[in-house]
Amino acid sequence: MEQSLSDKRDVVLEACDLRHQYGDKAVLRGLNFKVAAGEIYALLGGNGAGKSTTLSAFLGLIRPTGGTVRVMDQDVTEAPDAARAKIAYVPENVALYEHLTARENLSYFLALAGADASASRIEAALEAAGLAPDARGRRVGGFSKGMRQKTAIGLAIARHAPVLLLDEPTSGLDPRAAADFNRLLDAARSRGMGILMVTHDLLGAAEIADRIGFLADGRLEAELTAEGEARFDVRALHARYVRIGQTDAAA
Ligand SMILES: Nc1ncnc2c1ncn2[C@@H]1O[C@H](COP(=O)(O)OP(=O)(O)OP(=O)(O)O)[C@@H](O)[C@H]1O
């Protein structure tokens, strides 16, 4: 049997029989998947399927009811701080210090993380993240969503974080900004980052992901792997997504 990408490369994220319930409500019911270094994994699923809960488990923000989550072989429940140190997290709405410039934000957060906050490192990271030179010295209070994300990705690059978690990264971006963002993710993948992206953007996932997992009823309903140049058929993804929605609604 052919090996998947995550069997051949270093696994950076792993959910193993992950279970979580809020009160009586079981949200995750035995979720299993892996993300490898240099791979983009898109986790799809309807509203309330448990995608953000899965990210929270990797970030150590919730204590799973059962199973394990590992970041670079580190059990998150046992050592949440060590696991978090490996992760750069880009939430749907990136939180930055509004009155500080992009450069100052990176300087502040890098110093907070005990990392090298030299001007040359910050400049190189913002360059790699595609933030225009004239924007780097401006207060982020006036930034668009796309510019905020570039700043956050710049921070991830400057931290040399091996793992990137993204929650709905392209929601609210116009098609050009979304394509721009996907190029940025492609570059991060080429640097060897392992990327887990939670999204409703089927077109974006079809274009950029190496694997797509469909979350339904608290488990992976299906996992698809990109094939060659054609990658994924977005119409087939859409049909599958809609079918999952119907299953959820009937449950
Ligand atoms: N802190 C909480 N307490 C109680 N219930 C919660 C909590 N957080 C999430 N839930 C519930 O758990 C379920 C899964 O939520 P989650 O945010 O993980 O879903 P999601 O797949 O990210 O949804 P969406 O696509 O709408 O963002 C939802 O029914 C939600 O209402």
From TrEMBL:
Entry superkingdom: Bacteria
GO molecular function: ATP binding; ATP hydrolysis activity
Record-linked SMART domains: AAA (SM00382)
Name recorded for this polypeptide: ABC transporter ATP-binding protein
Keywords of the record: ATP-binding, Nucleotide-binding, Transport
Keyword Ion transport: no
Statement: the UniProt record of this protein carries the keyword Transport: yes
Domain named ABC transporter: residues: 13-242
Pfam families: ABC_tran
InterPro entries according to UniProt: AAA+_ATPase, ABC_transporter-like_ATP-bd, ABC_Transporter_VariousFunc, P-loop_NTPase
SUPFAM superfamilies linked to this entry: P-loop containing nucleoside triphosphate hydrolases (SSF52540)
